[in-house]
Amino acid sequence: MGEAPSTTTSGSVAGSATNLPFAVHVIRGRWFSLFASFLVMTGAGATYLFGVYSKDIKSSLGYDQTTLNLLGFFKDLGANVGVLSGLIAEVTPTWFVLLLGSALNFGGYFMIWLAVTNRIAKPKVWQMCLYICIGANSQNFANTGALVTTVCNFPESRGVVLGLLKGFTGLSGAIMTQIYLAIYGNDSKSLILLIAWLPAAISVVFVYTIRAMTLVRQPNELRIFYRFLCVSIFLALFIMGMTIAQNIVTFSRRAYAGSASVVIFVLFVPLFIAIKEELNLWVRNKHQPVIVPEVKIENMNQNNEHQSTNPTSLELDNPNPKPKAKTSCFANVFLNKPERGEDYSILQALLSTDMLILFVATFCGLGTSLTAVDNLGQIGESLGYPTKTIKSFVSLLSIWNYFGRIFAGFVSEILLVKYKFPRTLMFTLVLFLSCGGLLLIAFPIPGSVYVASIIIGFSFGAQLPLIFAIISELFGLKYYSTLFNCGQLGSPLGSYILNVRVTGPLYDREALKELAKKGLDRSAVKELVCMGNHCYRSSFIILACVCCFGGLSSLILVIRTRKFYNGDIYKKFRDEAQIIAT
């Protein structure tokens, strides 16, 4: 941070000297880093747009539905297997993670665009699967670079931070849709090109501003996050209104440009909030400098050893300390585990009972939710809803996905801090809520799909922030970049088994039964279509049972961690943080 200019300096020079250090202070500040993370996460949800451009892939490359579903699986696989980005983040700085992610994003989606627009020879199916897997996997690098770093910068507000950042990811598809309509019109092939260059450009622009910083505790922190929350809620409601209006009224190119301009302006409102907070800190630091030793994020687990009040420091006064007994790797991983909330090693966390239970709950919860989301269009078609109504289902699901993420972040944080309400219990309740949405599809009544879309969207959105927060609380932040990526591995596995192996075949079986009643066989029709309430009944009863089992598994984790959540889980961060008065 720069020095205040001397009073003897001339006005013009003083002005430039004041502006430059403050500008540097803003760019290097926590709040500007948080704003940059919002924008990076806004570009990290391109996978939600697959349903928009998948028809172009199918028609341009001559794929059947089975091949397209295979591409969809590899998209989910790439989006959810982020172990590689986590391991890279353990040994490289944040800027490298973001740059690598932007390169993968551009490379994967740009190759898909070249193939769809026939600018290159038709790729083999495995090549297209590789391209979409690489492009989708890039979002894990954005998650690891922006989300993990921001959680480490605001450890006492991690639930709120996770809710906000994942909320912007949830809105990502809708935001990019508004921008692409303004730039390219209704040319959905160009949407793939936008997905290729826009998220990559955002990461490159903010690559050096997102980094781990000195721990600072601000008493008014939550109040600032509420301002960001209000901005994001307004953005979500505006996009929902525009989406509904665009489905009812035909928009001109100028109207699309006006809508996109409002979206972009609202996206930059958090910048003004960040500048205001950095200005407050700038003025406060000039008048009341805080003389506290800096505590770096990467050394958080070692700080207690250097405090004079810690009994371990007294060992230095002993001239003949006893040598510590060596323990085997097996003992360290399985027997000598830290207390919950302390920093686990990667193996200690992955092989713990708590992580195993969380994996089962994630498999059941996210697996069933992804299956419902992927089949929502077909569900509407089988129940006889028109195309516009089906789009409304998708819009409802997307918006309530956002509200679920925000709810999981803010409400779980308030309940945890004020009432010691365990985040694991909220995760359990969300899974049971999801069961209700699945049953509404299994046993549909008029209008029930609207309610099911809201319930499933809300519960699906709420699960990820809760899972990420629980992992950070139980296993510490030292290896969080790897552990939070490992924590969602159950999602693609659940999606593959429940969607590809269960829901798809059961739907095809019902469709074949309908053909048999008409005296036809599979060769008589080009596409298998099932119409009626029975089409998804069996599969969604199974999904509801699986989700309920996940909720019961999560209840075991609630019982195991109740003592931990009854304590003060943020105490060590308050002790280690540099304190700034209001």
Characterise the protein shown here.
The protein is mainly alpha-helical and about 575 residues long. The protein is built from 22 helices and two strands. A two-stranded parallel sheet has the order 1-2. The model is unreliable at about 1-20 and about 290-315 (pLDDT under 50).
**Rg from C-alpha positions?**
25 Å
- The ordered string of helix (H) and strand (E) elements is HHHHHHHHHEHHHHHHHHHHHHHE
Order of adjacent strands in the largest pleated sheet = 1-2
Uncertain stretches: 1-19, 290-317
Shape: globular
Strand content: under 5%
- The portion of residues assigned to helices is over 70%
- Number-wise, the strands total 2
Please give the largest β-sheet: 2 strands, parallel
**Distinct helical segment count:** 22
Quick recap:
This protein has helices at residues 11-27, 30-42, 50-61, 65-80, 83-91, 94-116, 125-153, 158-184, 188-205, 221-248, 253-287, 329-335, 346-350, 353-374, 376-382, 387-419, 423-442, 448-475, 480-486, 490-517, 537-566, 571-576, and strands at residues 216-217, 578-579.
